[in-house]
Amino acid sequence: MKGVSFIGDTTYLATLIQGLHFNAWTVVAVHYVAFAHLVGGLMILLGCLTRTASIAQLPIMIVAVFFTNLRNGFSYLNSELWLSVFVLIMLMVFSVIGSGGFSFDEFVKRNTPKRN
After folding, report:
1. CA 7, 20, 84, 69 torsion: positive or negative?
2. For 51-59, which contacts have Cβ atoms below 8 Å and span 24 or more sequence positions?
3. Which pLDDT score, from 0 to 100, does residue 17 have?
4. Is residue 100 part of a domain?
5. How many CB atoms lie within 10 A of CB 111?
6. Predicted confidence band at 116 (pLDDT cuts at 50, 70, 90)?
7. How far apart (Å, rounded) are the C-alpha atoms in residues 65 and 82?
8. Mind listing the pLDDT tens digit for each residue in 34-85?
9. What are 12-27's pLDDT values in tens digits?
């Protein structure tokens, strides 16, 4: 959902990134964030290359937690910070554990004929 909102309002995302004084790569960063959220989120949802998709999103969430959302403080009213922290923790878990038993990766692994 965050990727869709970033695609719909790229000026907001560009403003967030410019606030980090990342001027030279603003356009690249905007496209990377939107693409990683859209494609990576779908891949994690389906369980397809879960570890790769999680690792691709880790830098985005680290920046979101430690540089963007901390400006508003550790308040219970700052729900965006807590959501970002939760997603960061889940991405770390998915990066280590990988996809589960009902994932596309597991389906392919079970239904691929074994070669001798």
Report:
1. negative
2. 51/94, 51/95, 51/98, 51/99, 54/91, 54/92, 54/94, 54/95, 55/95, 57/91, 58/88, 58/91, 58/92, 58/95
3. 64
4. yes
5. 7
6. low
7. 9
8. 888 889 989 999 999 999 999 999 998 998 888 776 666 666 666 677 888 8
9. 666 766 666 655 566 6
Number of domains in the chain: 1
Q: Is residue 116 part of a domain?
A: no
pLDDT at position 78, please? 65
Given this model, what pLDDT does residue 90 score? 94
Residue with token string 């290359």: 49
Residue with tokens 């308040």: 75
Short-list 57, 56, 60, CA closest to 16? 60
Return d(Cα 46, Cα 52) in angstroms, integer: 13
Domain containing 62 equals 2-111
